[in-house]
Design the sequence.
């Protein structure tokens, strides 16, 4: 795989040959993309994923979700059963089924970087509250709202949760979640990126002012690029789908990419194409067309 330089929204690929190459890998976001709003995977989408893998095309689920939230698609994985979780912080084998996921690759956020990010964002945006995602654990500050499906393993200030002697210090930190009740989501993202700088990568996938903070070079795109390099797959042979700012780098990097009909404006600008909304099976629509175009 050739080096395309840093994977950022400013380095969108424009090679036209990608449109003529048969796809070798499909990379799709989940929430707002592959999943309908009720979190279901439609029969049409299940059939399209199965047809793609029968044609020899790998399917990667590339999501901000932690591994423990992947049960929703475990039944729809055919063949390899791999997912990129936590916005690139982990590659997970889903073969074991619910509750038996195995970490293949972990790209952790160093605790020193995490603490620096927390402190700088606290200074820039007073009132920010935090949660900490680890490989198996979830911890949060007492003031952090109930935004997720689970009860936290512990409640403590972020500085304590990230301390070298924290109870879960032997477990890698995958990402920090930062929430603010009063700031516009896009403004909060811009503010955080300026405050944190190169200490960590900051993005968002939620419609609320909820940010996701990962290792400095960790993103959906960078981890997908590593996985493709291991398989001898070039970016021109990748077709990607997404709907939110945490998908921008991946859509920029892929040879062909599609923003959902319900996508954020930044995603529409980054993608090379557009499909219909997630509730209208936009991913399946494109997969069916690609298979027909290439006689697969």
Sequence:
């Amino acid at each position: 795989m050739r080096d395309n330089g840093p994977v950022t929204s400013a380095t969108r690929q424009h090679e036209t040959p990608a449109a003529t190459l048969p796809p070798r890998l499909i990379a799709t976001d989940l929430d707002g993309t592959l999943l309908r709003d009720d979190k279901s995977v439609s029969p049409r989408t299940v059939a399209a994923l199965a047809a793609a893998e029968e044609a020899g095309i790998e399917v990667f689920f590339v999501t901000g979700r932690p591994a423990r939230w992947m049960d929703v698609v475990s039944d729809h994985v055919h063949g390899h059963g791999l997912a990129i979780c936590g916005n690139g912080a982990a590659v997970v084998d889903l073969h074991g089924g619910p509750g038996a996921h195995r970490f293949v690759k972990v790209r952790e956020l160093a605790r020193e970087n995490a603490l620096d990010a927390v402190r700088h964002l606290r200074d820039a945006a007073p009132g920010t509250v935090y949660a900490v995602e680890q490989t198996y654990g979830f911890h949060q500050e007492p003031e952090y709202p109930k935004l997720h499906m689970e009860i936290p393993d512990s409640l403590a200030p972020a500085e304590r949760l990230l301390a070298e002697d924290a109870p879960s210090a032997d477990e890698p930190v995958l990402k920090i979640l930062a929430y603010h009740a009063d700031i516009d989501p896009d403004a909060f993202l811009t503010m955080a990126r300026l405050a944190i700088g190169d200490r960590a990568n900051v993005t968002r996938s939620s419609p609320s002012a909820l940010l996701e903070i990962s290792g400095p070079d960790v993103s959906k795109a960078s981890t997908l690029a590593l996985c493709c390099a291991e398989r001898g797959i070039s970016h021109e042979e990748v077709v990607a789908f997404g709907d939110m700012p945490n998908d921008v780098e991946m859509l920029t990097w892929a040879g062909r990419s599609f923003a959902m009909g319900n996508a954020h404006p930044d995603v529409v600008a980054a993608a090379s194409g557009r499909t219909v909304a997630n509730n209208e099976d936009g991913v399946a629509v494109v997969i069916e067309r690609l298979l027909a175009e290439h006689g697969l």
Notes: The chain has ten helices and 14 strands. The longest helix spans residues 111-124. The first strand starts at residue 25 and ends at 28.
